[in-house]
Amino acid sequence: MKHCAGQIKYLAAIKELTEKDEYVKCVSIARHLGVSRPSVSKMLRCLANSGLVYEDFCNSVVLTPEGEEAVEELFKHYDDIYTFFHKFLHLPHEEAHSSTLLFITDYPEETCERLQQIVRRTLKKHK
Known about the structure:
Layout lengths: L4 H16 L5 H8 L3 H13 L15 H10 L3 H11 L4 H14 L2 H17 L2
């Protein structure tokens, strides 16, 4: 995936908020990420210019098919990495969730894939 860390964090936030509510507003994203509303507007403009969200994001932020594909690719390692933090490191759900999001948004794809492979091999051995 060829998106900057900021774009990835916003895409992850939009995905999470969309799962909770049908309409994702700029103010919801700002609260979720702990950033200002102007920062959200600036990043949404960038995401719209990249074709990841629809242009009319003032009323509700909606991912384009390309944006949904980017989120799907981003989250393809989520379950296994969450397992690492929750089951292997014994972090509580919320901490494991936030650590997983931090990991998949900040670490390179190759690192996510390597951790995913380690988790899967370890789980397979213990069955």
